[in-house]
Amino acid sequence: MSAPEEEFYSEERWQNWLDRLREEELDPEDEDSARLLLNLQDDVAIAVAKILKAYDDDELGQDEGMDELADIREVVLAEPAFDDEDKLMLVDGVQTSLVAVFYSAEQYVADGPADEASVDEYVHAAVDAESEEDLDRALGLVAAGGTRVIDGDDLDMTLLEDVEYGLVTEWVNGLDSLQSALSDPEVIEDDDD
């Protein structure tokens, strides 16, 4: 198997986003700020989607797929150097959402799609696990649901309408980005206005 031509994601790309966040006046209530943070999240989800596609198309083997995912995860989940506590918190929210994207992708590459329940059932079980403060189980269930999304199942975000905001809602938000990326893996430009 030959190595793919492209680099799926680079530390430089992530740093460009962080530099842009440092320069911006960020207000999570402001539409432009919210879009910038969502673009940051979607950009990473697109890179993950491209790795999954390369894996599904046999352009990457299992080990290479896992290595590529680990490389991006290491870059994206590293503690960013921000002096501004509010911005650090906003980036942390994006990173939290992306945790589920990485876990889902890794689980998919390692074991294929989970087949014991539907996406909705996995998410509802994760909500229950979170309410019991079993966060490891909750993340595992969201990731299992994520493997179903990667396999083509539809994630309907309305299933979270009555769920109290917490880690599961953040993680599922990440899966929503992944679902969009899988259906339309177009690159988001750093300087998109």
From TrEMBL:
InterPro entries: UCP022079. This is DUF2150 family protein. It comes from Halobacterium jilantaiense.
